[in-house]
Amino acid sequence: MKRLMASVSVLALIALGACDQKKEEQQSSAPAATEQSQSQPAAPATTEATQPAATQVAAGAPATPKQGGEATVTFKDDIPTLDPAIGYDWKNWSMIKAMFDGLMDYKPGTTELIPDLAESYEVSQDGLTYTFKLRKGVKFHNGREMKAADVKYSLERTCDPKTQSPGAGYYASLKGFDDFQAGKAKELAGVTTPDDYTVKIELSHPDATLLHLMALNFSFVVPKEEVEKSGGDFGHKPVGTGAFKLGEWVPGQRIVFERNKDYYRSGEPYLDKITFEIGQDPTVALTRMQKGEIDIPGDGIPPAKFVEVTQDPSLKDQIAITEQLHTGYVTMNVNIKPFDNVLVRQAVNMAINKDRIVKLINGRAVPANQPLPPAMPGYDKTYEGYKYDVEGAKAKLKEAGLEKGFETDLYVMNTDPQPRIAQAIQSDLAAIGIKANIKSQDMGTVIAAGGKKDGAPMIWSGGMAWIADFPDPSNFYTAILGCGGAVDGGWNWAWYCNKDLDARADKANAITDPAKQGERAAEWGKIYTDLMKDAPWAPIFNEKAYVIHSKRIQGPNGVFADPIHIPVNYDVIYATDVK
Amino acid sequence: MSAYVLRRLIQAALILLGVSILTFCLLYLLPADPARQVAGRTASVDQVERVREQLGLNLPIWQQYGRYLWNLLHGDLGRSYLQRSEVTTLIFPRVPATALLMCGAIFFELVLGLTFGLVAALKRNSALDQAIMAATFIFISMPAFLLGLLLLYFFAVHLGWFPIGGYGQFKNLILPSLSLGLLGAGWYAQQMRSTVIEVLRQDYVRTARAKGLNRLRILGLHVVPNALLPIIAMIGLDIGFFMGGAVLIESVYGWPGIGQLTWQAIQQLDIPIIMGVMLIVAFAVAMGSLIADLIAPLIDPRIKLR
Asked: Is B266 within 8 Å of A4 when comparing Cβ atoms?
C-alpha cells in the first residue's frame, strides 16, 4: 500500500500548493508512472512472470562483472526514511534492501525465496514453529557481529506500537502479538533465541506466508545500540548488515551509498558507490541519462516521452518491463442500493471496455478479469471472467428490474490519469443506462469515504490500488476482500463479506507444507474466481513497470525487471567501464 | 522605541498563536485519517487504535491542541508522521537553502523591478512604457509554478544556458531566484513607476531643473533616492509573499529548501511538518514586517514609530 497523498487546501500557502499539484500531475502523469509512484513498494512477481521480462534485458552485457565504479540514480521526491520498520514507498523499499538484510531474501531477478541472514531453517510438522539457524560472522556496518538477539529485537521493534510501523499488521500471526501490542507483555513471546545463532519463531496459527514475512523489509535486522544512539532518527542514520552502508545524506539533495567491504556475500556488491540525486524532474533525468550524466532515472519514463522512448530502437536494450503484482479495480459497495443486487454488479463488470482503458494509458497494463494479477501464483489462466458485452449487461440490469438505469457516484483520486480513466468508465456505464457522477477527490478523502459503510457506492482504485508486498496470493484477500477489512475505517471498500470464503482462506493459509504449495495456490485461485461470481469488484487492469538505464550499468539477466526491487536490485548491478 | 518593539513582539506572538489554532483546526477537519495512514493497510482496527493513541489523536481536539502548544513552548514541533524524525531536525537544515533563494529573488526583484519601473516612468505613455506595464501585469498574475516551468524549459532545457535544477553553485541559483523574483519585480516596477512620476512633479525636482542640473544628475541625486524610500521599506514584507511562491518554485527546480519539504508533506498529509512550516513562515512574516517598520524611519525621517 502506498503513502497516502492528500491535497490539503488550507491557508493561502497550502492553497497555492494545490495549484502546483496539477503541474506535478502533468509532469509525472502518465499511467504507470503515477500509479507506481503513489503505490506500494516492491511488487514481487512469480518466477514465471519474471522470465519473459528477463529476456528483454541485457543484450550486450559483458561476460564478467568487475568490482568498482559508481552509478547515479535520480528521484523527483525526497526519500523520507531508510528505517526498515518504517519505510514503505516504492523508492526506499529497494534502497532499504541494499542497506539491510533479513532472515530470508529472494534470488535476484526472481521471486524465489532463499535464506539470507539465516543459513537454514526448519518448519515443524504442524507449521507452527520455524527454527532459523543464523549465518556466523555477519557484521553490522558498525563492526559488531549480528546475533540472534538482534533478530528478536528487530521484530519486537516493528511490532511495538510505539514504532508505528506500517508493516506491524503482517506479524499478527506471531505468538503473543496481541499481548505485546496491547502492552500486556514486555516481550514478543513468539520469538525466542535458544542460542546466539538460533532464532525460533512460533505462531498462534499456521501462516503459510511466514517465510515471505521474513524477507519483508519490516523484519530486517537492525542493531539496538545504533537505534538508541540515533535519538529517534534511525531513519536518517541507518545501520544494517547489507551490501551498502550510508556514506552521506544531504536532505533534499543526495544520498550516497558506499560499498560495505565486510558484506558477507563475497564479491557483492559490485559498485563502490551509488549516488541518489533528489529533486530531479523525470523528463530532465531521462535527457541526462541519454547524455551519460546519470545511470538510472528512478521515476522511470515520463508519460510525455513514453511513446518516443519505447519506440526508439537505440534504447531498446536499455528498457526492461516488469509485470507488477498490481490490480486496478472498481469496487461496488454491497451495502448501497442497487449494488446490493449481484445482477447489477455483474452488469457493471460486463459494461466496462477494459481494452479501451488500457489504450488510454499507453498500453502500460494488461486487462484483468480476476482480483489476482497474472504474475501471482494461483492466477487462473482458464478463467474467462465477465466479457465486455453491452447487450448482456443491459439484460442483467433488466433482470434486476432496472432497465431504466439508475444514478450513482463513482469516487476517484484526483491525480492524472485517474480522472480520465473514471471518465472512460463513466461513458461505458452510461451506455447501459447507469449515470455515474464522478467524485474526484484527494486520496485521503476517497479512502475515508471507502472506509465508511455507506460512504462510496463505487470507487475506481487507481493510484490507491493494491500492489502486493510479497508474491503470495493471500496478499490480495484479507484486507481488501475479506470480512476483516469490511469494518469502519477498513480497506474493503466493496464491504463484501463472505464467511465461507473467509473460512476457505484460513484453511488455505494453514497449508504450510512446502510440498503442497501448488495445491495451496490453486485453492487461492479458486477462492478468487468463486468470489467473482458475487462480483464485488470489476477488475480493470494489471500494470507493468518500465525501468530504463544507461548502457554502462548492467546486471545479470532479469535484474532490471526484478519485481521485488524497483527500479533495480542495487546489490548486483555493475559498471561496464571498470578497468 | 523599545516599547514599540516589545509591543510588536507581543503582537507577533499572538499572530503565531492564531495561525497555529487556525491551521490546527483546518487540518483536524480533513476527512483523511492520519492514524490509518501511519498504521498501513495490514493493520487491524485494534492496531490502528493503538497508533491513534500513540499519536494522541484519540483525544478531543482542544486537548490535542493543548499538547501541541505545550510542546511548542518547549521548542518541540513534534515528529513527522511518515519520517518519524523530529520536525525541527527536518526543517532547520533546509532553512539556508530557502533563505538563499529569497536573497536571490529579492536581488532580481529589485534590479529588474526598479530598472523597468524607472524606465517606464521616464518614457511615460510611450509604447515602451505600455509594453513594460503589460509585462508586469503578466508576471504579477502568472502562477509561480507556470513561470518557473516556462523559464526552466526555455533557458535550461531548450537553450541549455543554465543547469536544470541542482543546488550548491551560483549558476544553480539563477533560474529559481529569477522565477521567484519576477513575480515581485512586476509589482515593484509598477510601484517604482508611480513613485517616480510623483517625485518628478515635486518642487525640488523643478528647482533642480531650473538650476540647470543635467538630467542624469537630477535622476541620480533627487529622483531615484526619493522614489526608493518607500520601496526599500517594503522589502521586509516580501518574505511572506515569497514563502508562498517558494513552495512551488522549489518543487519545480528541486531546490532543497523548506518549500520542497512542505510540498511533499502536503501531498502525504504529514500534519506535524505542515504545522511546523506554517508557524515558521508566520514567524518569518511577522519578523519581516517588524524589521521593515523599524528600518522605515531610518531611511525616511518623516516616518515615526508609534
From this structure: no
Spatial distance between the Cα atoms of A33 and A41, rounded to a whole number of angstroms: 13
Which residues of chain A fall short of a pLDDT of 70? 1-63
Task: Please judge whether B93 and A251 are an interchain contact, meaning their C-beta atoms are less than 8 angstroms apart.
Answer: yes
Q: Do the Cβ atoms of A136 and A197 come closer than 8 Å?
A: yes
How many H-runs (helices) and E-runs (strands) does chain B carry? 15, 0
Question: CB distance A279–B33 less than 8 Å?
Answer: no
Whole-angstrom Cα distance, residue A406 to residue A566?
A: 43
Interface contact flag, A164 B38, Cβ < 8 Å: yes
Closest Cα of chain B to A210: distance in Å? Answer: 15
Question: Minimal Cα–Cα distance from A392 to chain B, Å?
Answer: 36
Percentages helix, strand, coil for chain A (3-state, rounded to 5) are: 35, 20, 45
B101 at interface of A, judged by CB pairs closer than 8 A: no
Phi-psi region of B45 (alpha: psi -120 to 50; beta: other; left: phi over 0): alpha
Find out whether A368 and A329 touch, Cβ atoms under 8 Å.
Answer: yes
Residue with cell 535484474: A559
CB < 8 Å to A232, chain B:
79, 84-86
Please report the residues numbered 138 through 167 in chain B whose beta carbons come closer than 8 angstroms to any beta carbon of chain A: 143-146, 149, 157, 164-165, 167
A68 in Cβ contact with A578 (< 8 Å): yes
Please, where are the H alpha helices in A107-235? 148-159, 177-181, 210-213, 224-229
In whole angstroms, give the CA distance from residue A537 to residue A331.
5
Strands A326-332 and A466-467: antiparallel
Alpha-carbon distance of B249 to B127, in angstroms, equals: 32
CB contact under 8 A, A161 and B46: no
Q: Where are the alpha helices (DSSP H) in A292-372?
A: 303-310, 342-351, 354-360
Contact A350, A400 (CB under 8 A): no
Burial class of A455 by CB neighbour count within 10 A (0 to 12, 13 to 18, 19+): buried
Per CB-CB distance under 8 Å, the chain B contacts of A165 are 40
pLDDT value of residue B305: 65
Of A153-162, B121-130, B166-175, where does the model show the most confidence? A153-162
pLDDT in tens, A7-51: 222 233 333 333 333 333 333 333 333 333 333 444 333 333 333
Q: Who's near A328: CB < 8 A, 6+ residues apart?
A: A35, A365, A368, A421, A460, A461, A462, A465, A539, A540, A541, A542, A543
Answer whether A442 sits within 8 Å of B245, measured CB to CB.
no
Strands A129-134 and A118-123, sheet pairing = antiparallel
Residues in A touching B40 (Cβ below 8 Å): 1, 88, 165-169
Chain A residue with the nearest C-alpha to that of B40: A166
Kindly state whether B274 is in contact with chain A, defined as any CB-CB distance less than 8 angstroms: yes
Distance from CA of A6 to the nearest CA of B (A): 5
Site of grid cell 511513446: A307
What confidence score (pLDDT) does residue A270 get? Answer: 94
Count of CB atoms situated within 10 Å of the CB of A228: 10
A198 vs A180: CA distance, rounded Å:
22
CB contact under 8 A, B85 and A81: yes
* Sheet bearing A273-278, strands edge to edge: A244-250, A254-259, A273-278, A70-75, A296-297
Q: Is B287 on the interface with A (CB under 8 A)?
A: no
With cell 508609534, the residue in question is B306
pLDDT value for A195: 95
Report whether B105 contacts B181 (CB < 8 A): yes
Spatial separation of the C-alpha atoms in residues B292 and B301, rounded to whole Å: 14
Identify the residue whose cell numbers are 514541533: B77
Find chain B residues with C-beta within 8 A of A86's C-beta: 82-84
